[in-house]
Amino acid sequence: MATKNHNLSDYDINSVPNAKGMKIGIVVAEWNETITASLLNGAKETLIKHGVSLEDITVYTVPGSFELIYGAAQMVKTGVDAVIAIGCVIRGDTPHDRYICKGVTYGLAKLNEEQDVPVIYGLITTLDMQQAEDRAGGKMGNKGDECAVTAIKMIDFKRKINGI
Ligand code: RBF
Fold it and tell me: 90 CB less than 6 Å from ligand 1?
């Protein structure tokens, strides 16, 4: 993937619809908490920058990234317009991280296919902590910003498809 120089916080501000009145659910994993907290902050700040009210952002935590699937599945039932799932899986000494990443990716993809609320993939999967820091407000930007913009665009997409 051509991500070498892609800054996750770079986007065309004019391409983002006004997000006033949009209700967003965010599910955040506690594993690698310093990273997921930065991703959460990025997402919230960007949502607010585009017009989402703080009261319209609901945040729940789950223990690890694997639990994001269940957390997001529950969150979609609460009446939010989109769900952002935030987690950070860092490569370890065993293949465990790969099973978690595959499971979460498959689980979130399945949720997107099977129900009506867009679920945004806010999982960063890195080889080490430095790469995670680089993508959580460091030199590669903040994946949380990218997720916020994606959530707004997908809500707008759904509204357009449904003629709203
Ligand atoms: N959860 C994460 O969100 N990120 C990780 O990097 C991560 N690494 C794990 C490594 C091991 C060896 C284990 C056992 C769990 C890890 N988890 C991680 C937690 C996982 O997502 C889930 O919460 C637990 O496996 C449930 O018991």
Answer: yes
The arithmetic mean of pLDDT across residues 7-14, rounded, is 94
User: Residues 55-102: pLDDT tens digits?
Assistant: 999 999 999 999 999 999 999 999 999 999 999 999 999 999 999 999
Distance set, CA 155 to CA 14, 97, 105 (Å):
16, 31, 21
- The pTM score is 0.96
122 lines ligand 1 (CB under 6 A): no
Say whether 6 is catalytic: no
Catalytically annotated residue among 6, 20, 77, 96: 96
